[in-house]
Amino acid sequence: MGFVRSSVSVAAATMMGAGLLVAAAPAQAANYPPTKPVRCGARIDGNSITVKIRPLKNKGYTFLIQKRNGKSNWKVVRKGKTKASDGLRTVRDLKKGRYRVICVGGPDRLNGQTSSGRVR
Fold it and tell me: Exposed, middle or buried by CB within 10 Å (0-12, 13-18, 19+), for 90?
């Protein structure tokens, strides 16, 4: 006979009393997309930046250090990974300029970003 398209919408079917079966989502899908960002901090001391990311993670977090090249134009100059034991990493020998740190959260956390600071 073939396929026959129904002219009754979901709203109309609900008004008529027809119930809809909705399958429950698995428990692990309830947290996706993640809602909490990582806590990302950076301290500038001379020509080095110390990055601190929390909460601690078994493999550490990836971070990007960006340097400002003009108004609202940022370029990645260094990449790194924090230690799993304390969540810290120090990046040394940076040239003068304005820097910020982007902390990559991963599948269970959103990315974090620090405010910009000046290396002198």
Answer: exposed
Model confidence, pTM: 0.71
> Of residues 26 and 84, which shows the higher confidence score?
84
Count of residues in the chain: 120
Which of 25, 120, 21, 43 has its CA nearest to residue 88? 43
Q: How far apart are CA 23 and CA 29, in angstroms?
A: 13
Of 107, 110, 100, 115, whose CA–CA distance to 64 is shortest? Answer: 100
Answer yes or no: is 44 within a domain: yes
The answer to whether residue 84 is domain-embedded is yes
CATH number at residue 93: 2.60.40.10
pLDDT digits (tens, 9 = 90+) for 45-72: 999 999 999 999 989 999 999 999 999 8
